[in-house]
């Protein structure tokens, strides 16, 4: 028997009918006899061979429908999987947005959720109203009819969102499946990781916009708005930057605390600054011995409010005392004392105004009166105030505290303080004091909080903790020169008999300018008493003393040079704070569009941890938005389901 190989099989497969005879007539190359001659049976005479071919065609036709269905099922299944995946992505983003904004008003929170969902689901510009964004079906990814359900706040820190979609099928319609339903949910929870937060806030006189003159004080726009105590509370501000700052800072606190009085492992400090900071009159033990012993006599008949000077530029002070976090025990403070200029400057034997004429008796419009200097003279009088504490913020630095009420009460108490200028470096440094573990013994804030190894401020590397500074300023660092008296400029050549209103200002009405400055051509003839500050190139008293004192360096003799040097010290301080592991946010407010230089903007953008941690605000109402955004960024989030 001969076994044909594959080649022979292929030959037979394609041979014409009757070709077998030709093969049998050919001699075998091996000398073997061939099989009997046979023809290839293509079809049988009764036609049954042709019927088999028809059966195959019928079977193929019968199988076509399920095969198409199977292919369609795979295709529509893949589309449904893609839809579910996109829903998951969009809902995760929406849940995070909801948890981040959970303490806002419900309408505002839900708008954030809906906007995040529809944007990620492929409807970037939906044009939906707030009412339409949830609970209504709209076509989105893959043209599926999709509904975002109203978000649900499970508790004070957890947000749940869900959505469902109906996807029209393609091929599987032939199987009687016209659509596929997909439902997805997500849940996000604010983890509330631990944080020590310091709000460093500019309370200089320039923050007192539209409320700087005596007549302004009677306007309702210059009143003080009560800060909101609960998240999502709508409170309209008055026409005043200081009022806006109070509301903005309160917004941030309400976002972090929600309706809770305390949050586990959250502590906040408040640091108001001008050209100095107020550490509090109860901190006498932080002063040098001789300074502390003369406080009562130096400030009589009032008292030391608590402000201190920069620890640099005088005998015994380190060269970097305003750029490091030295404790009071390492480098004691000197009290901020704006000495009286009364009687120090004369013209032809007659008194001319000094820039801070105060004594036990005050002057009224014509003669000396019987009203002794009191704290009333610091309030509502702007650049016309006098006394030993001029330029000192009224609000004392609040060290780290856990209670929301205490923090909001301190924010409510913020008031602008005129004179001196703006020195952001001293405010920033004091913010560092409140977060530095080196200051733990100085603040003496009690035993270690529950779950922590040390008392506050915690170590820089404490597990699951962050240290953050949010600094806000409204202008360029500068050394201000009040033009109302010597040793600086004295250009008010007419005295004023105008007086401050008795309401809302406390105490008796007093004159604005009881003595006029000499004419410009006579200024050169003004003489200074022995030991009085020099007249040429001088300015207000600040945390660095008088400009003429040279405590910023011997080469600093005018305001422009002082501004450059202060900016250099801000930059150095920012670098030191960030190298310690503290995150810095900076907010620069310039509602006039011209009061803040490009150099100042660049300075504070570089001070921030990243450019994204810097915010420039040109519209007053945007200040609250900026603080709200920072608050939501500080709220730690995690997806839990």
Descriptive keywords:
six-stranded antiparallel sheet, 641 residues, alpha+beta, Rossmann fold
Tell me what the CATH architecture of the largest domain is: 3-Layer(aba) Sandwich
Shape: elongated
Distance between the termini: 74 Å
**CATH third-level topology of the largest domain:** Rossmann fold
Helix content: 25-40%
Overall pLDDT: 83
Work out the strand percent: 15-25%
Q: How many strands?
A: 21
Q: What's the story with the biggest beta sheet?
A: 6 strands, antiparallel
**According to CATH, what is the class of the largest domain?**
Alpha Beta
* Count of the domains: 2
Rg calc: 41 Å
* Oligomerization state: single chain
Protein name: Putative Flp pilus-assembly TadG-like N-terminal domain-containing protein
Keywords: Membrane, Transmembrane, Transmembrane helix
Pfam family, one: Tad
Organism: Roseicella frigidaeris
Care to describe what's here?
With 641 residues, the protein is an alpha+beta fold. α9 runs parallel beside α11 and α11 (559-579) packs parallel to α12. It folds into two domains: 62-189, no CATH class; 194-637, von Willebrand factor, type A domain (Rossmann fold, 3-Layer(aba) Sandwich). Strands 1, 2, 3, 4, 5 and 21 form a six-stranded antiparallel β-sheet that branches. Strands 12-7-6-14-19-20 form a six-stranded mixed β-sheet, sandwiched between helices. It has a three-stranded antiparallel β-sheet with strand order 11-10-18, with no helix packed on it. It is built from 13 helices and 21 strands. A hairpin with a 5-residue loop joins β1 (137-139) and β2 (145-148). The two termini are 74 Å apart. The protein is 28% helix and 15% strand. It has helices spanning 6-13, 20-25, 48-100, 106-120, 241-257, 289-293, 295-299, 404-412, 424-435, 440-443, 559-579, 598-607, 622-634, and strands at 137-139, 145-148, 152-153, 158-168, 179-190, 194-202, 266-273, 277-278, 307-308, 345-347, 350-351, 398-401, 421-422, 465-473, 478-479, 496-499, 511-513, 527-528, 583-589, 614-617, 637-639. Keywords: Membrane, Transmembrane, Transmembrane helix.
């Amino acid at each position: 028997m001969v076994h044909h190989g594959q080649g022979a099989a292929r030959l037979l497969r394609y041979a014409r009918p009757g070709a077998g005879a030709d093969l049998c007539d050919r001699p075998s190359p091996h000398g073997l006899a061939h099989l009997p001659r046979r023809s290839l049976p293509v079809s049988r005479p009764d036609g049954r061979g042709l019927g088999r071919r028809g059966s195959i065609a019928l079977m193929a036709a019968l199988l076509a429908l399920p095969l198409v269905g199977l292919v369609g099922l795979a295709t529509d299944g893949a589309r449904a999987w893609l839809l579910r995946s996109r829903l998951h992505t969009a809902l995760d983003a929406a849940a995070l947005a909801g948890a981040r904004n959970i303490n806002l008003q419900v309408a505002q929170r839900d708008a954030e959720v809906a906007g995040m969902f529809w944007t990620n689901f492929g409807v970037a510009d939906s044009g939906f109203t707030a009412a339409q964004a949830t609970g209504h079906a709209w076509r989105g990814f893959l043209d599926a009819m999709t509904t975002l359900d109203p978000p649900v706040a499970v508790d004070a820190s957890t947000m749940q969102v869900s959505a469902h979609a109906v996807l029209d099928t393609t091929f599987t319609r032939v199987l009687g499946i016209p659509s596929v339903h997909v439902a997805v949910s997500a849940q996000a929870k604010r983890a509330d990781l631990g944080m020590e937060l310091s709000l460093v806030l500019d309370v200089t006189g320039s923050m007192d916009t539209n409320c700087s003159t005596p007549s302004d004080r009677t306007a309702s726009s210059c009143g003080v708005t009560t800060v909101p105590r609960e998240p999502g509370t709508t409170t309209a501000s008055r026409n005043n930057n200081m009022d806006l700052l109070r509301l903005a800072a309160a917004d941030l606190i309400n976002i972090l605390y929600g309706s809770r009085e305390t949050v586990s492992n959250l502590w906040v400090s408040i640091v108001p600054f001008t050209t100095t900071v107020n550490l509090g009159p109860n901190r006498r033990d932080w002063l040098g011995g001789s300074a502390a012993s003369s406080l009562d006599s130096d400030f009589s008949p009032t008292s030391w409010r608590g402000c201190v000077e920069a620890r640099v530029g005088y005998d015994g002070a380190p060269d970097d005392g305003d750029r490091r976090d030295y404790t009071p025990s390492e480098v004691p403070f000197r009290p901020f004392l704006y000495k009286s200029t009364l009687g120090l400057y004369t013209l032809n034997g007659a008194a001319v105004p000094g820039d801070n004429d105060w004594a036990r008796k005050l002057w009224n419009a014509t003669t000396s009166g019987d009203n002794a200097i009191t704290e009333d003279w610091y309030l509502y009088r702007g650049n016309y105030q006098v006394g030993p504490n001029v330029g000192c913020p009224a609000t004392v630095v609040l060290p780290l505290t856990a209670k929301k009420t205490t923090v909001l009460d301190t924010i409510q108490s913020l008031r602008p303080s005129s004179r001196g200028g703006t020195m952001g470096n001293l405010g920033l440094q004091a913010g560092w004091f409140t977060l530095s573990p080196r200051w733990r013994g100085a603040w003496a804030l009690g035993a270690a909080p529950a779950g922590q190894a040390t008392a506050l401020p915690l170590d820089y590397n404490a597990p699951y903790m962050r240290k953050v500074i949010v600094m806000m300023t409204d202008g360029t660092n500068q050394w201000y020169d009040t033009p109302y008296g010597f040793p600086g400029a004295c250009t008010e050549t007419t005295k004023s008999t105008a007086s401050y209103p008795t309401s809302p200002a406390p105490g008796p009405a007093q004159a604005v300018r009881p003595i006029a400055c000499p004419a410009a051509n006579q200024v050169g003839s003004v003489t200074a008493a022995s030991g009085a500050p020099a007249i040429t190139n001088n300015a207000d008293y600040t945390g660095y003393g008088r400009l003429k004192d040279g405590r910023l360096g011997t080469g600093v003799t005018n305001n422009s040079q002082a501004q450059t040097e202060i900016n250099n010290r801000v930059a150095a301080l920012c670098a030191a704070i960030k190298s310690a592991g503290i995150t810095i946010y900076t907010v620069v407010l310039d509602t006039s569009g011209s009061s803040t230089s490009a150099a100042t903007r660049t300075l504070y953008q570089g001070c921030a941890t990243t450019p994204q941690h810097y915010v420039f605000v040109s519209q007053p109402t945007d200040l609250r938005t900026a603080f709200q955004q920072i608050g939501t960024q500080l709220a730690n989030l995690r997806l839990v389901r």
